[in-house]
Amino acid sequence: MLRRHLEQHFNRVWYQHGRVPLFYRALAQVYKTWVKPRCKRPTLTAPVPVIVVGNLTVGGGGKTPLVIALARHLSSAGYQVAVISRGYGGRRRTLPYQVQANDTAAMVGDEPLLIAEQTGAPVWVCSKRSEALAAAVKAGVKVVISDDGLQHLALPRTFEICLLDGARGFGNGELLPAGPLRQPQDRLADVDLVLVKGEGQVAGQAVRVDLLPERISQLDGSDSEPPDAWQGRAVHAVCGIANPSGFFRTLEALGMQIKPLAFPDHHPFKAEDFHGLAGAVVVTAKDAVKLRALGLDRSVHVLHVGMSLPAAVTTAVEKHLMEWSSAHE
Fold first, then answer.
1. Rounded to an integer, what distance in angstroms lies between the CA atom of residue 53 and that of residue 162?
2. To 5 degrees, how large is the angle CA 95–CA 101–CA 106?
3. pLDDT of residue 262
4. In terms of Cα–Cα distance, which of 174, 251, 166 is closest to 207?
5. Contact between residue 55 and residue 160 where contact means Cβ atoms under 8 Å apart
6. Using CA atoms in the order 129, 181, 59, 314, what is the torsion angle rounded to 10 degrees?
7. How far, in Å, CA of 238 to CA of 272, rounded?
8. What pTM does this model have?
9. Fewer C-beta within 10 Å: the chain N or C terminus?
10. Tens digit of each residue's pLDDT (9 = 90 or more) over 198-240
11. 45: which residues sit within 8 A by CB, 6+ positions away?
12. Distances 328 to 210, 262, 324 between C-alpha atoms, Å
């Protein structure tokens, strides 16, 4: 409950023109002093191409769908790809660990489990991403995608992608905790590719990408229907993600009449969270990997989304991989 109230509070301050307390501004100055030496792109040498998918703001933004789309594309193009992650919310984070088919979100984290299920690529988790990278390379992987990690200075990288949320942008433009920025906006000058999810004017040379609703299924993945089949239906929209308003807007855009219920990001769901919700419930795919173990009834459905990758993205990434290969032959 406390986490939910804190997230709602900071969303008001950061994104809804809420008043920034003077205490937060004072802490932001301390944070600015601390983060300034850490704002340069790391120059460590990577043993294989390492593509970091990150953002400048706290939480959300669509990084995981982007990682999934990129891993799928590169795998289909013949590259031997692995994904590394901090494994937030999972117990197996102290040492590098490869996600297995029978793992749960409580063991490895919801995002790594979702990525492994939807890509089929090996996914390594460790609180120190550099150690996850070393484990993946030792296993023979040729290309590594890091889910987040733009600010992880110990992680070598050869290509950086910064994904921005067009709807929320940089919020009030302040550094933590006065605003949502982990690093100043000029950090964008160092990245190789800036993407904007949806509509928004947050960066001059950014490439637009979109999250596209693909299907709605039962919690176990069965009985899929096209999203437009749900037009006009009344549903409980339940999620535990960093930007719940984006999920709610998507369902409303599909014509559903929603009753929203938002939990904190990475919320460890319990069956009691769904007590009293009569009728259909729709959740995100990220939440679904945690919910399957709860024995919920068939009224819980999952909205599956995918991210389209324009040619400007795939061409830039593949060009980098070819250049790296030529330089290391």
1. 6
2. 55
3. 93
4. 166
5. no
6. -70
7. 13
8. 0.95
9. C
10. 887 666 678 999 999 999 999 988 899 999 999 999 999 999 9
11. 156
12. 34, 48, 6
